[in-house]
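Re: the pair you flagged

First of the two:
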Amino acid sequence: MDVLFYHTETGKHGKPSKLCPAYFDIGEEDQVMTTHRRTPGTLFMLFLITLAMPIFSGCAFIQLFIPPNGLNVLPAQEFNAATSKDNILLVDVHTPEQAHIKGTDHLVPHNKLDEHLEKFPADKSTPIYLYCKTGHMVNVAARTLFARGYTNVYNLKGGTEAWKEAGFTVEE
């Protein structure tokens, strides 16, 4: 931090003495002005650290926006065709509860999947189709399923908002 002085009577700027930079003789008519200089590199480093901390700490908020490896994301048309087949599980993971796609097997909050694993098939290769309002909560739910050994997990791209935009209906 650089400290500058402005003398109101003379209009001159000055710096503290080089011999004693911490000693300031300030009269009633003097004002102290401080300036903080940060280089663009310093600001960039602060930005990177701020961005990296939640990612490396496993922040649940960040996990909403980053799909896990292996998650199959389908647009509404493909999701509709796939969920009309037999031997699949369709699960709404949105919280709070919302309107559901017809044929939904279970309503399980995305952050409470571990508490409801009995609702999921013993065969870990069974196709599981997850959805929420926008598709983001599925990312958290899918991580839980992958950690429990499930291998065939799908997400409705854009969630029920995209589902409705594609012309499909939901049940209230």
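Second of the two:
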Amino acid sequence: MIDVDKIEDIRRRARGGEPIAAIARAVGVSEPTARKYARMGDLSPEPPRRRETGSELLAPYEATIDSWLDDDCRNWRKQRHTAVRVYVRLRDELGYEGSYSTVQRYVRRRREEMARERDRRDAEGFLALSWLPGEVQVDFGEADFRVRGVLTRGEVPDRHLPALQRGAHPSLLGRDVRVRLPGAPQRLRVRGRRA
């Protein structure tokens, strides 16, 4: 194997009209090598060819497999079909005569496609939230507090009254399910009168 610089030199000299013997002597390669690289049109390697993804034996069963995989999305992870289980069901229930590896490749490809489709739908979709007066949204987060001069990280209930469009409420250190909103009934009554 010769390096790329020599190959380019051979091709440049051949385009210039030099005889192969003179090119071979000047570059320091044999005449058959000089002839080979002078005639070569493209030096880039040929890209690998993709194999056909479908199988004639599996084609009649693809809709059935897709329905099983679609139903699996609603099941617990441990109760979903594995490729082995899909193959066994096809063989025993529907008389499939193909190989396991064909089923395995199809199941893997379809799961990846279905996951991409779900991700795309989730990214495009949204849920518009509507709140009635008096409903409270509560979540817990972490924040740093200075308690008696010591910096402490604690859980903070974040309370939000979406109907009032106000999110700033006093934060209390600790996680307590009985979150109280001081003044909430008065605010709701005032809001009710103005509306």
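The beta strands are 137-147, 150-160.

-B.
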